[in-house]
Amino acid sequence: MRSNCWLLRYFRFQLIVALSLSFGVSGVALGADGAFGDRVALVIGNAAYKVAPLSNPRNDAQAMTALLQKAGFAVDNQLDATREQLAEAVERFGKAIKDPKVKFGLFYYAGHGLQLDWRNYLVPVNATIRSVDDVRQQTVDVSQLLKYMEEGKGRSFLVILDACRDDPFAGAFRPPVKGLSQFDAPVGSLLAYATAPGGVAMDGSGENGLYTSNLLREFAVQGAKIEDAFKRVRLNVRLASQGRQVPWESTSLEEDVYLFPVEKKKLTEAEREQHLDQEIKSWLRVKSSTDQTALANFIREFPSGSASELAMARMNRLLAMQSANERKRMEELRNQLALAESARMAAEREESERAAAALRAEQALATARTEALRAEAARVKALAEAAALREQELAAQKAAAAMAEQRAVEAAQRLAELDRAKQAAIERAAAERNESARQADALRAEQAIAAARAEAQLAEAARAKALAEAAILRAQELAAQKAATAMAEQKAAEAAQRQAELDKAKQAVLDSVRQAEAARVTEKEKAQLVAQLERIAPESAPVVGPTPYSKGFSEHQRRYAVGDEYVYRVIDSLTKISQPLKMTVSAVNLNDDRVEYNGGQYSSDMMGNIVSNLRGSFNTPRQFYPAELFVGKKWRSEFKQVRSNGVTFTFRYDLRVVAREEITVPAGTFNAFKIEARGFNMQLGAALARNIWVAPGIAADIAHETRVTLSSGTIEQYDRQELVSMVTHR
Asked: Nearest 10 degrees: CA dihedral of 513, 516, 517, 521?
C-alpha cells in the first residue's frame, strides 16, 4: 500500500536513478518558441524527497512520457522537480495550451500531493513542510493549472494525478484531511485521480504503480476512447486492490477523445442492430451473475454500451455486499483482537499474581524448612534423652537383678547349709541325744529355715520392686519416645503440607509460564489479525458531499421494501391538467434484480430503470440512471420496447448529469442531481427529451419531465411528474 511505500522507495532510489540514465527518455520542452504540434503534455515524476522518498514516480513518468511521445505529444518531462522547476513547468504548459494550434493538452503528475481547504497541492522534492504556511509557500496549487485550462476554450484537456498521499512528510506535518479534494472538471476536460478523495493509492508489484500500470496498458489500446480507458482502469484497479482503491474521474469532455485514434467504419443500421443484439445477449448471460470476473469482462468489452451502467451498478452492489461481509469479518477480527488483548492482559495479571504467590510459597517453604529442622532437632534430643533413660533403666535393672541373684545365691547357700546342719543335727540327735534334743535342734533348724525363707522373700520383693521401677522407667521412656515421634510426625506433616503448597505454587508458576507463552503466541496471532484487517476492503464506494469546487459524488443505489409507496402528480404541460399516480412496491427480488409495483402493472430493476409498464416491456432495462452520480457523468442507452400490440420500437439516448441543484416539489425540497437525456425513437423518427432529478438515498425520481416531438414537429407528449409523498418500510 502506498501508505507504506516510502519505506521501500528510499532503498530503491539510487538504482532507479542509474536505470533512468540508460532509458534516455527526454521530452520536447514546451518552450517559448512554440515548437510543438497540436498535442502537448507535461509529465512530472517526483521521487527523491528529503523525507518519505518514493520509487515508482520516476518509472511512471518515464513510461508515460514514452507512451505520449508515441501518441504524437510534445512532452515536457520533469523528474524530481523543485518548486521553482515545477512552477516554471506548469507556467510553460499553461502558455502552451493557449496556442491556437493546440487541440489536446495532457498533464500527468506522480509524486506526493495533499489537500488543504479543499484545494490540491503538488509537493516538490525540495519541500520541507512543517506547517500550513509551508504548504502554501513551498508547493504548487493545482488550481493554477485548472485556471490555464479554463482559459483554453475549444480544446480537450486531461489531468492525471497519481499521488501517494499518506503522511508525505514523515510526521513533521499531517494534513487535516488525507488524499486530494474532488474538483469538477472545467468544460472540455477530464480530471483523473489515482484514488477517491481521502483515499490512499497502492503500489504495484512491478516497476510502476498500480494505477499508472493500468493507465499505460489501457491508453495503448488503439481506437480506445479516453473515457472508456478510464472506465477499464477504474475497474481493474478496484478489483486488483479488492476495493481498497477506487480511481476517480470528473469529466466535462464535449467530444470523444482518443490517445491513439483509428478511423472507424460507420456502422449501418443493420450492423448497429446486430451489435446491440450481441450486447444484449451478453448482458442477459451475466445480468444475474454473482461472478465479478464475468461482469468485469462484460464491462471491459462494452465500456460504453447500453448495459454498461447496469453492469457497473450490479458490480457496485456485489462489491458493496462483499464490503459488508468484509466489514462483518473485520468486526469479528476486531473482536478476536479484543479477546486476544484481554487474554494477554489477564495472563499478565495472572502471571504477576502467580509470581507473587510463588514468592510467598518460597518464603513459607523456607519457614517450614526452618521449623522442620527445629522439629528434627527436638526429635533427636528426645530420642537421646529416651536413650539415656533407657540406659539408666537397664543399668538399674541389671544392678537389681545382680543383687537379687546374689541374695538368692546367698539364701540358697544358707538353705543348703541349714539342710546339712539339720541332717547333721538329726543324725546327731539320733545318735547322741534323745528325742527332745532332736526336737529342739529341729525347732532351731526350722526357725533358721524360716528366717532364710524370709530373707529370700525380701530379696524377691526387692527384685520385684527393681523390676517395677525399671518398668516405670521403660513406660516413661516409651511415652517420651512416642511424644517425640508424634511431634516429629506432626512437624513432618506440616512440612509436607507446606511442600505440597509450594509444589502447587510452582505448578501455578509453570502454568503461568505456559500461559505467558500462549500469550506470546497470541501476539503472533494478533499481528496476523492486524494484517488481515489491513487487507480487508473498506466501503466499496465513498460518498463525497459538495465542496466549494465540486458538486459531490454518490453511487446510485436504491433500496426497496414491499409496501413502499410513492405518490406523484403528473401535470400535462400543454393542458395543465394534473392527475395522480400511486406506485406501491408489491414484490422485490434481489436475485432477479426486479422490483414490481401495483401488483405487476410496472416493474423495474434495482436502479429504478423501467423493465415493463402499461405500454409494453423492454428487452433490457432502459438505462436512465448511471452507476455513479456526479456532474459531468455521461453515458448512452439503447434498448427495444415491445408494445402490447406487438410493435417493436428502438430507442437511443445520450445522457449526462448536468447539474446538482435544489428542487422543490410537493414532497419537499431536495438536493438532487439533474440528468439530461436526449434521444430518438428510430421507427417513428421522434425526438425524445427527458429531464430527471434524483436524490441520493431516495428510491424514486424527485421529478421527471418528458417531451416527445414527432418528425412532423407535433408534440405528442409533454408532461412533468413530481413526487407528492412517500412511505418507506426499510
From this structure: 170
